[in-house]
Amino acid sequence: METVTAVGSDDPVLIRFDDVSKVYPLPAGDVVALDRVSLTVVRGEFIAIMGPSGSGKTTLLNLIGCLDVPTSGRLVINGRDVADLTDDDLTYLRRDTIGFIFQHFNLIPLLSVMENVEYPLILKCKDRDACGMKPFEVLKAAGLDDERLYTHKPNELSGGQQQRVAIARALVNDPSLLLCDEPTGNLDQKTGKAIMDLLAEMNRAGKTIIMVTHDLGIASYANRQVRIVDGRIMEDTG
Amino acid sequence: MSRTFFEFARRNLQRNLFRSLLAVVGIVIGVLAISSMGILGNSLTLSVTEELSTVGDSLSVIPHSGMGSQFGGGMVQDKITERQVQDLRRIVGSNPVIPFYSTADRIQVGTKSGVASIYAMDPDDMPKIVEVEKGIMIRGNSGILAGPRIADQFDLKVGSQIRFENGDTQRVVGILKERGLGFDIQPDYSLIVPSRWYEDRNDEKGYDQVIIKVRDIDEVDTLEKAIDDRFNRREDVLDTFSSKEILSSIQQVFGQISTFTTAIGGISLIVAGISILNVMMMSVTERTKEIGILRSIGTLRSEVRQMFIYEALMLGAVGSVLGGLLSFGGGFLISLLVLQTTQYLFHPASLSAIALGMGFGIATALLSGLYPAWKASNLNPIEALRYE
Fold this sequence. Notes:
heterodimer, A: 238 residues, alpha/beta, 31% helix, B: alpha+beta, 12 helices
């Protein structure tokens, strides 16, 4: 079993951006999405990243999520410099250390609720039978108590239920970090609030949460707000 | 682990069931074509080989043709003399030597008349070269053996009287067992008469042909060489040819036909491969977002690749198994049509044609799946996630 959590897991700093830039080369000229950003995220924080569209917040999220690597500068996640990592290493880092929660839930339509939640665990432990009770535990923790739902396909569930499944899936490999991209963007206000309460509870249980949003009400759940404009950090309450 | 990706692949094929079935049909047709053609080719070769090998391995000796045109004015000879036969007997040792006359005559049987091919040979030699199905072998200097085909043609039965053109009559004493196509003689279509009876009525200077039954196949080449050394040192006097030689050249021709027909089947497999490629590329495009999700939550490139290759393999395996099963039917029909027999359908060579077809089917599917799988695994996860 490949694990990349061991190195630096005692280090209180989970993520460190050192002068990180991200430039997208386009035919019309280079686009600087992030401009020499420095940022430190300590374990246990709940950070809201805010900013207008095109400000670079999604780029920041992609870098933290190891879906992309910086053009320049140094980015260390969980003690590992992402510049040193291969595509497979980055994939393992995503699988074991980061839980993704998307605006559109992004569940796999082919898989049942239970299979969606089991999936990252199977990727990690290579055997369905070794999954144990963890998928059940995280589904309950995510507030899906009704076990009859577990055999349903995601599109048979309400938006709120789907997001709870997505949260359970994000939690199943016990990641240090939950990465949320507009987690309530597709939900009505009441459901959105329930989901935010759940995330806050996860944070209290020790998960570091980084959330991109442009909803001020949602951002207020976080204990630190970072505002990005034109690829630079304009405001950081941390 | 791989079970999960296998399951994934299965469900995805099920999700696009109609499309998957179309791709499978392509493989089925390709495998069916290759296997059926292979079965036909093999059955053809087998049937010819079997018909020919019933003759046993024999060496035919005939006078060298085109002698008259040779310089030096050598003796013009189109017969094999008694003396040459004696020489042949010495050379081949204990292998039976059967000299005979080969001719044709107009015959009349009751009201029917026509031309019949006639072999005249020593009655002692007859059992070495033909078998009697009804009646008895010729003993002494009278009687006729009739081949089954000529017997059908003239309604010959044991006891039938045959009148030859010069007015002589003889009775049929035996009807021969069908022997099939041969290289030495064609008894099925001929009458066999005793050589003494024939010689009494014709002034022959020598035999038309000599057949040497070779007991040990490995001896054929040595004997051929010995005969050649003895008779053809200065000029070609006698020609020899063995059934073995002809058999192998016929097998070669049929082998080529078989390869050719299999290649035609192969073309339909290529078409099937393209259809799988097409289906898989559509699948990759449609599932771009899903691939992005899988990649973002920790699926390796190699695992994505695996998933798509499983899909291609499943299409190939299902198509090949169906195609293989149908090939029994296809091979049965085509053998029945072309050869009028299906006895070679379960011969190992025919079964190997099916295995070959199925192997090609799976390999084609796999090859067609490689590019889509590679393409899927190399999608940029960020762009894939954004794809709608």
